[in-house]
Amino acid sequence: MSRWCVGFAVAGVLGWAVEVWGAGERLAERLRVGEARRVEATLEVQGTRPGMPVRRPDPGHAAAAVPPEESLPFGFRSRLRWVERVRQVDQSGRVEAVARRLEQADGQVEAFRGLGQTARVGVREEVGLLLAVRRGAEVVVASAGGPLTREELDLVQGACDPLLLAEMLPARAVDVGDRWELPETAARSISEYERIDANTLRARLAALDDRAARIELSGQVQGQVRGARGTVQARGELIYDRVGQQVRQLRLERTEKRSQGHVESALDVRSTLELKIEAIEPPRELDEATLAELPLELDEPRLLLVLGAPGGRARLLHDRAWHVTASEAGRVVLRRVVGQDLIARCDLVAGPNAGPGRHQDPDQFRADAEQALGAAVGQLLGFGEVEGPPRAGYRYKVSLEGREQTHGDVPIWYYHLAASPQGDQLVAIFTLSRASAAAFADQDERMMATLEWVMR
Residue 443 maps to which CATH number? Predict the structure, then answer.
């Protein structure tokens, strides 16, 4: 195969961005602090989730259970548009941190097409100023305006973040027709898997002219996420701007089959992701004064998510290891997943109003907890009122340990009762095992300490 031979004279004429390493082109990201760009991202997902626990309405309004073997269709569409300014780059010129201002953030979930289960998601205006920081193989997004909800986070933090597109570029000089393997960081970005078991993703320089390079992508990723195993087949292309020295466009088509995990049911989906990136002048909403007030690092408090408690009378904060798995009138269920391990479950239940300044009798609450668990209770570990900030109101905790089970583990329950000055009540039940107690630590008390009541 013939190779390009680029002399220093030609390199001087092209001056815009091609780094010459003998023969071939070095396609690398080269951005500077303060540069700005506009990004538009569209995503469309269509597929099925087998065995979903939903009920299909019939003309007579009687609910007929969907057979567990039946696969139900669902879809998701989103469109995001934002402007961003580079805040930090590494020594090679790759972006490490940016500030983003959302201009548009819309998503529509068609949970089960034809069954009338459609929902829209968006991002509140007050949390539309975002911070995106690269941490190894992932990009972490948080808001400068306050905690995001899980739904908002899922909308603004996803596959193929622009901060990771450089991972798809070659690490060496290449000619048209040359191929290279994509690293694990690119595989994680494309698949959104937390752990990669196998990666056959490859890229090929398909075309090159004075201004742009067209790169084709294809291959397969096998991995795990939140206790589920999956396989992603990916095919697409990206356009690298040789003048601006960055990726300008990406179109990626994926097919994925994933088993049921700790958080989500199994799925079989096809998706199309498109990214368009253009250079712009720094926008007023991201001027130097605004950037100067923003941190470059994201500490743990800024990463917390906000959750409306059932009943609508309170809100809590939790870290990103907690995931909502069920939500219905008066009850919300979360699971805590660290890596691929299920650590604990949390049930939040709205209780009856006890009247201003009142709450359930703590002795009765303790007796109710023991009665609910029945013969499963082995011993009472402790109980008592929990001190906390005034906004949390009255709080009481009961700790119970179960009897040893056939597989050798021992269950543990933490029952929390919380009451507002107006008498609104919330019960939180944390379920874990003795084996996961060390990993769980005091997560129940951390969550309950953030409780704030909505005053009427």
Answer: 3.40.1000.10
CB atoms within 10 A of CB 353: 16
User: How far apart, in Å, do the first and last CA atoms of the chain sit?
Assistant: 75
Nearest to residue 438, comparing CAs of 344, 346, 352, 351?
344
Low-confidence winner among 59-73, 197-211, 227-241 (lowest mean pLDDT)? 59-73
Distance of CA 9 to the CA centre of its chain: 48
Same domain? For 126 and 274 the reply is yes
What pLDDT does 1 receive? Answer: 38
Q: Kindly state whether residue 14 falls inside one of the protein's structural domains.
A: no
pTM as predicted = 0.88
